[in-house]
Design a protein that fits this description.
Blueprint (H helix, E strand, L loop, with lengths): L2 H9 L6 H10 L9 E4 L4 E3 L13 E4 L2 H6 L3 E2 L15 H13 L6 H8 L3 H12 L3 H16 L6 H7 L5 H6 L1 H5 L3 H5 L6 E9 L2 E7 L4 E7 L2 H11 L4 E3 L3 H16 L14 H10 L8 E2 H7 L6 H9 L12 E2 L12 H21 L1
Helix pairs in contact: 4-5, 5-6, 15-16
Length: about 375
């Protein structure tokens, strides 16, 4: 393997945890550009890691795999580092940029064949270089653009139906089939600014520190771990800024009890209803994580192969970092290919404790068979 290919392979192992990403942002590391983007809640802007802008506070920063994810979350590109522009040494970068502009300006989602013809590449080759440059497939990029058009349109005076067709959907049925997942809530609630969505929450103490449980009418939407109740509440409010946070009821209290049982026993809760919000790729990753047996671990590469995307292990790591349901979606069971402990959004020490605890539980289960 050539030196350049070795360097590339090693880079794919970097920036898989929020701690690594934050360190790159603090250092304004230019070699991290293209691997992730970060947003600043107080400014509403997202940047490249190397952006020369004034340093932000860590508590106001979130990380995204692509510019499209950051924009879908409501952030604008930075005018200093031009975070929405593709910059890469790949000779096809200009062609990929051109394809992105075509997708963004198209009223109807262009086909892969049409895009390939426009940039003068074969369909297979174009798909490969586009994903390498942007981190997502042309279809995923187009879907994100379409969702963003819907979000923007729902803030206008147009009818929901007009917004749907203007965004490029050829039928309202196709839009509503995945509307809640793609928008995070029903279109009417989004049009009202997200108000009207009631989310119950409670905070308890457990062996891992503080735990916050949040739930919508559909089920548990957040299980967050931390060192203090105040920090968890702040994080939770940032994730659901327009929702009305309310106290629990008998049903919710039962869910909280089930969550605590899972946390302390590190098992599973098959009857616990979940409101899992994420992209289609994230959903595939999270589903695969739930299949990892107690007491066992898997690498990011293992999960990537399992979901049929063997080269997307970096995106798998980012999906693990975006998981909002600690332990129930067991992202702590994912380690590096060499078995080393990798990052964990709720702290590496918690991850290590969970893995050690589950090894004991796994041995106990085997002995009991």
């Amino acid at each position: 393997m050539s030196t350049s290919r070795v360097d590339t392979a090693l880079k794919h192992q970097y920036y898989v945890s929020d701690d690594e990403r934050w360190a790159a942002v603090v250092a304004r590391a230019s070699d991290a550009d293209g691997y992730f983007y970060y947003s600043v809640r107080t400014t509403g802007i997202y940047c490249r890691p190397s952006c020369p802008s004034r340093s932000a506070l860590r508590k106001n920063v979130a990380f995204y795999a692509t510019p499209q994810e950051a924009e879908s979350a409501g952030f604008r590109p930075c005018k200093r580092c031009h975070s929405d522009k593709i910059t890469t040494n790949d000779p096809h970068s200009t062609l990929v940029t051109r394809a992105c502009r075509i997708i963004e300006k198209s009223d109807v989602q262009p086909s892969l064949e049409d895009l390939a013809v426009e940039v003068g590449l074969s369909k297979y080759h174009f798909h490969r270089v586009f994903k390498k440059a942007t981190g997502v497939t042309p279809k995923a990029y187009a879907d994100a653009c379409r969702d963003r058009k819907v979000r923007d349109g729902l803030t206008s005076k147009q009818s929901v139906t007009d917004v749907i067709y203007a965004a490029g959907f050829n039928s309202s049925g196709r839009f509503y089939a995945n509307a809640t997942e793609s928008l995070g809530m029903k279109p009417k609630k989004l049009r009202a600014g997200g108000t009207g969505e009631n989310i119950r929450f409670a905070i308890a103490e457990c062996s891992l520190g503080s735990v916050l449980v949040g739930a919508t009418e559909r089920g548990v939407c957040a299980i967050l771990l931390g060192d203090s109740a105040d920090s968890l509440i702040t994080t939770f409010q940032d994730q659901f800024p327009m929702a009305e946070l309310i106290g629990g009821d008998a049903t919710f209290d039962g869910w909280v009890a089930d969550v605590l049982a899972v946390v302390e026993a590190t098992g599973s809760a098959p009857d616990l209803p979940l409101d899992i919000r994420g992209t289609a790729f994230q959903q595939r990753v999270w589903q695969a994580l739930r299949k990892i047996p107690i007491g066992e671990t898997a690498s990011y590469a293992d999960i990537a192969k399992q979901i049929g995307a063997p080269k997307s292990f970096r995106a798998v790591a980012q999906a693990c970092g975006a998981n909002q349901l600690a332990i129930v979606i067991p992202c702590h069971r994912v380690v590096r290919s060499d078995g080393a402990m990798s990052g964990y959004r709720w702290g590496v020490e918690r991850k290590r404790a969970l893995i050690e605890r589950e090894k004991h539980i796994g041995k106990t289960n085997v002995q009991g068979v």
